[in-house]
Amino acid sequence: MLATLPRAAPRAARRLTTAHALRSPLAPSYNHTIRPALAPPYNHPLAHIPEADRLKAPYAFSLLKAHISEPAGPTRTEWVASLLNTKEGREWVQAAWDATLKDLADQPIATEVTFQTLSDHIADANNAKALKVGGSIVIRDVLRDPVAEAWASELTEALVSRAHSPTYYTDAQIAARADPSVLSATGQALKAFIPASTPEGAFVRIDAATVAPEQPTWVGKDIWAIEETASPSTPVHAYLALARTEVKVPTSSAAATYALLRPFFAPKKSRISFYLPTGYTDASNWAMRAPGTKPELDADLVHVRPATISLAPGDVLATHAGQPLQAADASGLLLPVHPLPATEGNRAYVALQRASFEAGLPPPHVPADGTPIALEDGGNVTMIESWGGRRALGYGF
Predict the structure, then answer these.
(1) Burial call 84-118: b when 16+ CB within 10 Å, e when fewer
(2) Residues sharing a CB contact under 8 Å with residue 281, sequence separation 6 or more, in sequence order
(3) CA–CA dist 236, 341 (Å, integer)
(4) Measured between alpha carbons, how far is 311 from 246 in angstroms, rounded to an integer?
(5) Phi then psi dihedrals of residue 53, to 5 deg
(6) Most C-beta atoms within 10 A of its C-beta, which of 106, 118, 292, 385?
(7) Structural domain spans, the chain
């Protein structure tokens, strides 16, 4: 005889009563009086953990509400566009364009000298004249390879720890900018291009290390003129190679004016309209764009034939600030060490630069565009070993 199973209780009878729910350990609302050790909010005290053993982020991001900045001047495009608003300005632009195309017909070999022979080289009047025409110089062996390579290793490690956010004030960058040999090389290059300046009085503009030279920043009618402005005004840019790299360098200072004006000129005929390439680059084939026409900012600089320069660790490249430089490879590491002539405007600028350094903020010419930046530790004068380095970075005057 089969056993009779008990019938299930009616659904209403199976419902948990309020009293039952309070006694059930997993019933809602899970209001347990004894919280498991790993239950949220994981608010465990850290007082018993030594400070040295705690994990810390290598940097912190911040959205700057205030920034130590200098007044921003017009961009290259804005400066030329303002010239085209007047008859005199358009006449200057056309004359400068015609003269530039003529000067670009001669693009000599880039000047290369060793640091030990630099002073003797630029003391020769013929060499000094050739430098101003060429607009660039490569100074070899300013630093020994192991010194530059050690700085490169330290800087690369810092960039990796900061997820490749720009850094301006690592020990390696400070030491490189303040190195007496680097200051001497860049100061002498400035003196060679601009006789009115003095190597001892040059300041240094702080920038982040990069694998490629920065875009041209120069604007002006006189290619080697020094202006008394509150901006970091310099016609000369210089780069210290911390690792082996190749850079494409124009070998004519006229390339600076050409790169400045090229977006505002258009060819009358295309390249395929000529049997010989010289027809396309002839001055008669180019006309100024009509007023109000959008400039061709990404125009190909067809008249410039840059030379590929191989830089070893410790070499310095100095060029006119308007020359369009390009990295021929992406494996190098360049530290900008742009010399600033000792004008009153630049003196005011390096004072702001010093304040940025002490606050751990980006240099004053770096725009605060509302994007988060990685903060750095504030610096002080004791981090700069040489007297010349202290003065170049804004101390001692």
Answers:
(1) beeeeeeeebeebbeebbebbeebeebbebebeeb
(2) 101, 302, 303
(3) 9
(4) 6
(5) -95, -5
(6) 118
(7) 106-252+304-345
- Assess contact for 268 and 210: CB atoms under 8 A: no
Average pLDDT for 293-303: 92
pTM above 0.90, yes or no: no
Q: Rounded to whole angstroms, how far apart are CA atoms 151 and 374? A: 21
Confidence category of residue 396, pLDDT binned at 50, 70, 90: confident
Under DSSP, the state recorded for 203 is E
Q: Copy the structure tokens of residue 354.
A: 């010093």
H helix and E strand count, the chain: 13, 14
Q: pLDDT tens across 145-176, in order?
A: 999 999 999 999 998 888 888 899 999 999 99
* Orientation angle between helical segments 87-103 and 254-261, nearest 10 degrees: 130
Given 3.30.565.10, 2.60.120.330, 3.30.420.10, 2.60.200.30, which CATH number is that of 106-252+304-345? 2.60.120.330
8 A C-beta contact, residue 115 and residue 136: no
Parallel/antiparallel/unpaired status of strands 326-327 and 245-249: antiparallel
Instruction: Please tell me the predicted confidence (pLDDT) of residue 331.
Output: 80
Please give the full DSSP string across 225-242, using - where no structure is assigned.
-----SS---SEEEEEEE
Cis previous bond, 28, omega within 30: no
Question: Rounded distance, CA 197 to CA 324, Å?
Answer: 24
Can you tell me whether residue 111 is helix, strand or coil?
strand
Q: What pLDDT sits at residue 16? A: 38
| Integer angstrom CA distances of residue 188 from 123, 183, 253, 305, 341 | 10, 8, 18, 27, 12
d(CA 234, CA 169): 22
CA distance linking residue 335 with residue 234, whole number of Å: 17
Which DSSP state fits 93? H
Strands 61-62 and 111-114, bridge-based pairing: unpaired
CA atoms of 136 and 158, how far apart (whole Å): 31
